[in-house]
């Protein structure tokens, strides 16, 4: 799983049922302090759907969207399993790194 895919999966979890392209992009911007392009959101989303880590759900059409539907995303059990595995790997890699090392680059 790429770092962008990991960030998107975590963002979908954070949005708790209100995860769609614009809301995912907005939340990532708030969390990371950086604006991602829509291409940098949708390509990893497509990959996550293909890997079955995320489920894409078609919402109801709305007049506000010209009768078009919004697509929502939710993390699947397989996606959660992989996030847990990745979190454990991060913790193992970071174990033993003194906090001071991050502050002064030594």
Features of this protein?
106 residues; alpha+beta; Arc Repressor Mutant, subunit A; two-stranded antiparallel sheet; 5 helices; 2 strands; elongated
Show unreliable segments: none
Largest sheet, described in full?
Answer: 2 strands, antiparallel
Number of helices: 5
Termini separation comes to: 29 Å
Strand content: 15-25%
- Rg from alpha-carbon coordinates: 16 Å
Give the overall form. elongated
Q: CATH class, please?
A: Mainly Alpha
Question: How would you portray this structure in words?
Answer:
A hairpin with a 5-residue loop joins strand 1 and strand 2. The protein is an alpha+beta fold. Strands 1-2 form a two-stranded antiparallel sheet. It has one domain: Winged helix-like DNA-binding domain superfamily/Winged helix DNA-binding domain (Arc Repressor Mutant, subunit A), CATH 1.10.10.10. Helix 1 crosses helix 2 and helix 1 packs across helix 3.
Summarize the structure.
The protein is an alpha+beta fold and 106 residues long. It has helices spanning 3-15, 21-32, 38-50, 77-94, 99-104; strands at 54-62, 68-75.
């Amino acid at each position: 799983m790429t770092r962008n895919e990991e960030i998107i999966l975590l963002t979908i979890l954070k949005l708790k049922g209100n995860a769609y392209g614009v809301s995912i992009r907005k939340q990532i911007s708030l969390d990371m302090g950086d604006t991602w392009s829509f291409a940098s959101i949708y390509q990893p989303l497509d990959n996550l759907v293909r890997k079955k880590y995320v489920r894409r759900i078609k919402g109801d059409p709305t007049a506000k969207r010209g009768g078009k539907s919004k697509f929502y995303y939710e993390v699947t059990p397989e996606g959660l399993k992989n996030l847990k595995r990745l979190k454990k790997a991060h913790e193992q890699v970071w174990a033993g790194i003194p906090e001071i090392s991050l502050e002064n680059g030594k």
